[in-house]
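Example for tutorial group B:
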């Protein structure tokens, strides 16, 4: 509990700035903006109604989808960079680095929540998959590599992005915590962002990433219904 006490006592301002900045920055939705420019329509009223990469690809086109992907990815990068820069002068000891890492995870979480529930668009945005991928990269690149492998293998079999996204979202907290647990055991320690992380830090990583993954799964509720009904579209199919 000393870790959390230190965080809330001495770094509460950095935490608030990181959370608020991440949310408001990520509330800017690239898919909505690009679709409005290209089609003069609201992407949330097209196809699946999701303001994200896949629906943009199906309903608007490849170039708008690529722009959407880049915008959604940059949200996570920028939102994690903010707490990183706010703590640039922190001590390099393990305890300080754990606090810093938690701030990075929180910035990433609120980037995803801002994308999902954007204040500028009546709290209806995307599902946060691409933004989560960028958060993985910025907080622990090993997790992104592992999840991309999981995604890729399952995509070859299913050809359905929603199924792969759900699998990755569900496994995210376990993969993230597993790498930190391996670090605490000094396994592949040369790859560890933090040497010998404490149990409390690993718990914090699991909780934050669990919330992230759970939010993605909840927003995929319609996809889950279609998967169970056998009507979920594959990436090669387009909405009319």
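The residue assignment follows.
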């Amino acid at each position: 509990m000393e870790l959390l006490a230190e965080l809330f006592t001495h770094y509460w301002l950095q935490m608030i700035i990181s959370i608020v900045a991440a949310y408001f920055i990520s509330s800017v939705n690239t898919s909505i903006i690009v679709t409005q420019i290209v089609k003069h329509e609201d992407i949330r009223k097209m196809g699946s109604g999701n303001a994200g990469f896949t629906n943009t690809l199906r309903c608007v086109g490849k170039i708008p989808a690529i722009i959407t992907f880049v915008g959604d990815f940059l949200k996570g990068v920028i939102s994690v960079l903010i707490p990183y820069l706010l703590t640039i002068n922190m001590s390099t000891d393990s305890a300080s680095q754990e606090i810093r890492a938690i701030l990075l995870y929180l910035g990433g979480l609120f980037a995803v929540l801002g994308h999902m529930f954007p204040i500028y668009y009546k709290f209806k945005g995307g599902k946060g998959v691409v933004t989560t991928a960028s958060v993985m990269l910025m907080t622990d690149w090993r997790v992104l590599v592992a999840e991309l492998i999981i995604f890729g293998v399952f995509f070859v079999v299913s050809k359905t992005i929603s199924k792969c996204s759900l699998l990755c979202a569900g496994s995210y907290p376990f993969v993230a915590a597993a790498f930190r647990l391996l670090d605490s055991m000094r396994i592949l320690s040369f790859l560890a962002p933090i040497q010998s992380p404490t149990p409390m830090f690993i718990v914090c990583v699991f909780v934050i990433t669990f919330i992230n993954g759970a939010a993605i799964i909840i927003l995929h509720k319609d996809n889950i219904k279609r998967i169970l009904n056998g009507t979920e579209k594959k990436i090669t199919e387009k909405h009319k």
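Residues 62-86 form the longest helix (25 residues). Compare this with the pattern of hydrophobic and polar residues in the output above.
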